[in-house]
Amino acid sequence: MLRTQIQVTEEQNRRLRVFAERRGLSLSEAIRIGIDRLLEEESMDRREMYALADALIGKLEDLERADDLGEDHDDYLEEAYQ
């Protein structure tokens, strides 16, 4: 395990200590749990984003209209999601 140093506000410190104490954890373990949750949430957001993008593939049937994609991309996206 690597050692790192962080700064937290007094309120964050108080809430972290309460969180850790209620669960019988050390402060370090409580912080690691928080980091894991944050990273997992970010990974889920990215997976969801890619799944939505993947679902759009092939939705634009009339490729002749795509010459204005740079200007009208919002319209195309709205149409594809419907």
Task: Please characterize this protein's 3D structure.
The chain has 82 residues and is mainly alpha-helical. It has one domain. It has helices spanning 10-23, 27-56, 69-81. Helix 1 (10-23) packs across helix 2 (27-56).
What would you say about this model in short?
Helix content is 70%, strand content 0%. It is built from 3 helices and no strands.
Could you tell me the strand content as a percent range? under 5%
Alpha-carbon distance between the termini?
A: 48 Å
Q: What structural class is derived from the secondary structure elements?
A: mainly alpha
Q: Please bin the fraction of helical residues.
A: 55-70%
Shape: elongated
What's the rounded overall pLDDT mean? 83
Low confidence ranges? none
Count the helices. How many? 3
Number of strands: 0
| Overall tally of domains | 1
- Structural Rg: 22 Å
What about the largest sheet? Answer: none
* Helix and strand sequence: HHH
Kindly list the characteristics that best describe this protein.
single chain; about 80 residues; mainly alpha; 3 helices; about 70% helix; about 0% strand; elongated
List the helices and strands and how they pair.
Layout: H1 10-23, H2 27-56, H3 69-81
Helix pairs in contact: 1-2
